[in-house]
Amino acid sequence: MTTMCEPLAEAVVSRLKAANLTLATAESCTGGLIGKLLTDVPGSSAVYMGGVISYTNQVKRRLLGVQPDTLRVYTAVSRQTAHEMALGAREVVQADIGVSVTGLAGPDSDETGRQPGLVYIAIDMPGMSFCKELHLPGNRAMVRKLAAEAVLELILEFA
Question: Could you write out the three-class secondary structure of the chain?
Answer without folding.
Answer: CCCCHHHHHHHHHHHHHHHCCCEEEEECCCCCHHHHHHHCCCCHHHCEEEEEECCCHHHHHHHHCCCHHHHHHHCCCCHHHHHHHHHHHHHHHCCCEEEEEEECCCCCCCCCCCCCCEEEEEEEECCEEEEEEEECCCCHHHHHHHHHHHHHHHHHHHC
